[in-house]
Structures are given as C-alpha cells and as structure tokens.
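Crash report, auto-generated. Payload:
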Amino acid sequence: MNRWVYLFSEGSKEQKDLLGGKGANLAEMTKLGLPVPTGFTVTTEACLYYLDHSEQLTDEIKEQVMTAVETLAAKTGKKFDDLENPLLVSVRSGSKFSMPGMMDTVLNLGLNDRTVVALAENSQNERFAYDCYRRLLQMFGNVVMGMDNNDFESRITAVKKAAGLTFDTELTAEHWKQIVTEYKKIYQEKLQREFPQDPIEQLYLAIEAVFGSWNNQRAKTYRRLHDISDDLGTAVNVQEMVFGNFGESSGTGVVFSRNPSVGNSGLFGEYLINAQGEDVVAGVRTPKPIQVLADELPEQFQQLKTICESLEKHYHDMQDVEFTIEREKLFILQTRSGKRTSKAALTILLDFYNEGIIDEKELVSRIEAKDLEAALHPNFDEKALKNRESFLSGLAASPGAATGAAYFTAEAATAAKARGERVILVREETSPEDIEGIAVSEAVITSRGGMTSHAAVVARGMGICSVVGCERLIVSEENKATVGDNLIEEGTILSVNGTSGKIYFGEIPMEEVTNLVALDELHTIWERHAAIKVRANAETPNDIKTGMTLGAVGIGLARTEHMFFEKSRLLQFRQLILADSLAERLEVLDHLKKVQKQDFKFMYEAAKGKATTIRLLDPPLHEFLPKGADECREVAKELGKTFNEVKRKTDNLAEVNPMLGFRGLRLGVAYPEIYQMQAEAIIEAACEVMKETDFVIQPEIMIPFTIDADEFAQVRASIEGAIQTSLEKQKQELDYQIGTMIEIPRACFVADEIAEHADFFSFGTNDLTQMALGLSRDDSPRIVTQYLENGIFKEDPFQVLDESGVGALMKLAIERGRRVNPNLKIGVCGEAAAHPKSITFLNDLAIDYISCSPFRIPQAKMTLAQRAL
Ligand code: ADP
Ligand code: MG
Ligand code: MG
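Recovered output after restart:
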C-alpha cells in the first residue's frame, strides 16, 4: 500500500519533495513544539497519481484522508458536521518551491447551514459565524468551482451601499446572513447546483481542485519563469481552522523575521485586527505595521518575536511567517525562507555570521552571485537627484532605481519591451496574471497595496525596483493615469526610486558604484579562504578607485596606451612616430615623459601603495596613424610638416595585419627610447610619491608581446639602464620588478628561457586565445555564434577560458617557467579569467593572482573563496 497522507506530527523539513514546502515546514514546526494548528498533508505523489489517472481520487487516497480526518477529530475534540463542536479546516496547497498566489486556499471548510448555527452558538458571535460561512462560499466557489470572485464581491458592495456603509467590518450578522443567502443563489444561477453541504464532499472537491490547479496557466507561467519543473506536483495541507476574525483580541498577519528590503534585524510586517486569511495582502483594509502589535497585544507580540528568532536559528535563514491570533492565543500557520532583495540577502548573511547563527564557511558558500551583482547595481546619481522634484511617492517596496516608459498592462509592457523599450509597469495593483509583465519591466508602480502586496513581493523576489501604494496615483484607464493635474500616458518617461519610494518625470542619470558597506567585511573573509588574489585591470584614477572600492588587492594591468588617446596627447604621439630624427623624437619624449609621470603619480596615489603592474605601450603603431588624406592634412598642419611628408610616413608605417605587426616590445626593440621614457616616468613618479606620502611603491613593469628570451633580455637591459640612471638622479632606492605578458603560443613553449630573465609572468588570455585558436578577437562573434549553435564550442572562448587549448598552453608555460624560477610570480589578466567557470581551472593551476575589470572583482573573489572551501 502506498502512503499518501502524513500527519503534521509525522513529517519533517527535509521532506519538501513529498510534503511540499508548506507541509514540510508545518511538520517541522509541529516537531519543534510551536503552536501550529493540527493537520495533515496529502502528498505530492498523490497529486501526480491523481493527474495521471483521469483526475480521480482513488479509494486508497480517500481512505487515508478519512483516517487522518478521524485522527484530527480525536486530537481536536471536534467532528465534521457536528452540531455541538464542528470541525472546520483550511485546505491549502503547497509545492516544493513556494509559488506565491499560484494555487489558492479554502478556509472554513466544514461549514454548512447546520454547523454555522453551532459555530454562532459556540462563539456567542453570530456575525463572526456568518462571515466565516460567506467566506467559505466565496472561496469554495472561486477556487474549487471556478466561479468569478467579482460575482460575490459585488453582492457585498451592493449590501454595503444599500446600508450606507464603507467597510466590511461595519456589516452586521444580519447583513452577512443576507449575503450568505444571496451567495447560495449564485451557486444555483451559475452552476445549477447547490453548495455541497457535506463536509467530506467539500473536502474531496477541494483536494481535487488543489491538485488540478498544478496545471493552471498561472502556475505554469510562474514555473517557466522560475525554472521550476512541471513534474513536482503539489501537496495539500488540511489543517484545523483558527480564527483571526473573532473580534478585537483576534487578528492575522504576515511577518518577516528581518527586513526583507534592506536586511535590518527586527520583525518586519503587517497585521490586521479582526481579520482572516488573506485580508492582509488583499488590500481591502490598510494593515498596521507589526510594531503596533507590541502595544495592542504585547504578550503575543513578544511570543511571535521569540518564535521568529528561534525559527531563524533553526533554519539558518530569514523567515516569512504567517500567524493568526484567536482570542489572544497565537498560532503559527506557515514559515518559509523569506524572499528578499539582494542587498538584504547580503546584509542578512553577514548579520547571521556576526550573530553566530552561521559559521564562516556557510557564509562564504551561501552568497549568491546574482545578489552580489545586483547589490552593485547603480543607483540614481545623487547630485542629479537633488535638483529633481518627485511628483508622486509611495511605499519603497523594492530598492534600486530605474528609468523607463510607462505602460499600464502586462501585454502593453511586454510588447514595448519587445520593441526594445525600457518599461515601467504602472497599475492599480498586480495579480499573478501580471507576472510576465513584471518580469519584463525595470520597475513596478502600484496605487494600492502594502509592503506584502503581490507587486511588492514579486518585484522584490525578481530584484526589480518597485514603489507600491502610491495613493495619489489614479489609474483610470488602460492607457493613462493621473496624479492631481499630472497626466501619465503610455510611453511617458518616469524615473522610479525603489529605495526612497519617490517617482519622477523624465530620465535621471545613474550613479556608477554604490559602496556596499558589507562588502568590506566580505572581502576580508574571502581573502582568508581564497588562495588566488584578485587585482584590477585599471589605469584611470576613477577606475582604480572603483577597483579598490570593489576589493582589488592591487592593479594587475594598467594599460599605458589608454593614456595616449586623449586629443592633445594623440597629437604628440603622432609627432613621435612621424619624427624624422632621434633628436626630434627625444624632444617629444621629454614632453610626454612629464605627462606620463603625472599619470603614474595619480595611479600610485589612487592605488594607495598596493601592487601596481604597469604595462608598457602595446598597441599596433598603426592605430595611431592618421586615417585618410583629410586627417593627414590636419596633422601636417598642426605639426608644421608638409602633407606629403606625413602621407609618405603614414603609408610607410601602414600594415596589412597590424594585430600581428609592429606592436608591443617590437616597438621597444625598434625605438628603445620610448620604453625608456616610460620606465623613467614610472620610476620617477614612484620616487616622488614615496617622498610625498607613506606609501611604499614597488612598480611592476610589464613588457607586452614577448616571443623570445633574447628579445626580452635586450629590452629589459635597455630599460634597466634608464632606470638606474633615473634612480641615481633621484638618489633613492626602490624595489621594482620587470616581467612579461605571456600571450603568444611561442612564449609558452620557451617560457623556461624567458623565465631566466623575467620576474613575473602575466597571461593575457585575450591575445593568447586569439592566437592559440587563430580566431581574431575583433571578428570572432560571427564565427563563435555559429560554432555555439552547431555545438562545436560549448562556450565562447573569449568569455570562458578554453581549458583544453589555451589552458594547456598556460599549464605548460607555468611548469616550464617555475622549473627555472620557482619564485616566478604568475598572474592572469583578461576577462575570461574572471568568469566563474574558468576559476576552478585557475584554482588548480596555483597561480598568484587574476586581474579583471573592476565590476567583476567581487564575484571573482567570492568564486575563488567558494572553490577553495
Ligand atoms: P498561500 O500559499 O497563498 O499563502 P496559505 O494556505 O498559506 O496560502 O494561506 C492563505 C491564508 O489563509 C493565509 O493568510 C493563511 O495564514 C490563512 N490560513 C491558512 N490556514 C489557516 C488555518 N488553518 N486557520 C486560519 N487561517 C489559515
Ligand atoms: Mg494565496
Ligand atoms: Mg501562505
């Protein structure tokens, strides 16, 4: 016999596959002795079996459900259809992964024309009993029978209107009785049948409806968007009802054990007094912040707080908890790990670590790349923001900032996105049908709903910025909205600040980096675990600062040619390469040296004494030549040369294949004075910064494009000569190193010979990939796309290191290099090195550092630490 049903007291949190997330956690909390109303779970296997067998509950499943109902009766002292003490239950869906709003719950099941009278008598509260009954009729009608909820709600509205009342809470017992009678008529009208009076029939129908809902469109869409398998099925939880709508000492709410938006500790959530089920999230009444409960029901608040804390300790995670208070008694109805923003995710993990809830290893392993990335997402530029007036504000539901065009329906948003627009979804409120529209939007704005409303929860989960409950926003039609006199139409550009809750007309520029405080602490921890260090590819003071902020332990690659592309310098550089004599060259170089020295001083200062690898000029000379006759004429004029002179020289230096031409240290061989100038500037700048500051500077001078030991030795000797003269002039001692890029296959093979002369190697994976694969990096996309489609490449080799080819070359070079020089420092620069998929491989190579662009540093450090665990 198959086991289809488990009591809450029989399961545990490990059984999410079988019992679903909700059921497994209800069981776990029962085991922990928390106040959970008793119940049982019909398994996901039963669901799959049901769906596979013509959607019929088998006798075996029914029998097991009945046995569990009897146990429930015995435990609670209540019975189905009992006129003294009727058993009422909720029927709740719950699959392995939480799917908010996907499959609905039926409350108060077991009520009928007879038991409602008993409930009224037992509770001495007729109003309450009929409110419960009408809710059952409504939920059962909607969820189980597929009726339109508006048909029900419109009756309530009509009754309120007739009685001149505004709120549901003002309706009396008589009103609810009248509504119940009308609801029963709706069943007749719409279904030509009665509402089933038999609780057991109600239960079977509800279980079947939950099972069936696994395949509804909303559930399918959600699964597709979240990569959840269609084969999991959902469990059904049947649980004794507790009543938050019993009066002023009852209530219901949702709390997070920490703030899901920013991560602060302390309860965060909302509740309603005298309310049931989803009243809090439905936005019917405005819920109160959970802190108010500390005044209204202090004991229950304390108990709730203690329970949340113990759940956090138990689960090692921030919890999202549903609770209900029935006549001052607190019940916990659900716990699960709470959805949170990326910023909150990081803050919470760090706090857990500092509070001793998790250890360092768990901290390192649990941080997710997407959270780290999102935490680094740009915000609005603060200065720009200062000069702007917001025209609308609401609750800051999900942080971040975004600019885009307003659209009012999921369809319009999706269509606009497909046209390449950035979209802001503007709605009264959102529902699960809007999920696709939310997913394509940069931000979501709603006029109604609180911090736990659908829009808020979903946007937070997706890391989309969101402002909800903008009360002044009136979404009147499908293509416009108003805020006072302001009109928002389809396509109106809005800027949304999900951190402050403010909304602006027009675009606001974004800020570059946000300095995440927590990041500093993480860097220290990652560094403790990772064997390989991470440096930044950066040369401008701004990039260097960003790199340092994001955790670089130094600069791994400062490309000096980037310093020559500025207009006035470009001209000087052109003068240098077009010079007719050494004398003219030296004159220009003298000038260039002064500006380079300034560049290097800025760099050292920005790097604050951390290791700095400066690469001497690398690009093909070709790139600096004037293009076309017009530019030649212009350059000629500016340099006081004739057009013909410039043209002839330019033609002379032009190359068919510049990337394999006159570049890198080939320039150093032909014009030693250029590299000498750079080396002097590097050394003199270092000496000056050391005099002016406390930083100890040890420049690492890197020579690009080496293919041969003698070639390298010659260039090294020439620049070392210049350095010695420089140092003598400065009367200063300075440690420096001279090493080389390894980026040409030949250099890998003769790495042992080169290593005799080099202090360090740095693999340039971009060029090495280009040359090892014979695949031009500038023209590769067309070929790579084709190769990926045909399955020849698994990954783009310029994004993920080609281990078997390029990686093998690196391995060989490292082996040969270290054989000759065991202290050889080895780095890898190039973006492919920082890809998480490349990092495992690099970890095994035992290199000293990788160097990548600043924004990739945190993730690279994290991945290195995780791989080292
Ligand atoms: P969802 O997965 O959509 O949150 P739930 O089954 O958790 O669906 O619940 C819907 C609402 O009904 C929640 O507010 C929950 O707290 C409430 N609820 C569920 N079961 C009970 C019960 N036995 N007694 C009182 N309220 C309940
Ligand atoms: Mg729900
Ligand atoms: Mg729930």
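Post-recovery validation: The pocket of magnesium ion (ligand 3) is lined by residues 322, 334 (CB under 6 Å).
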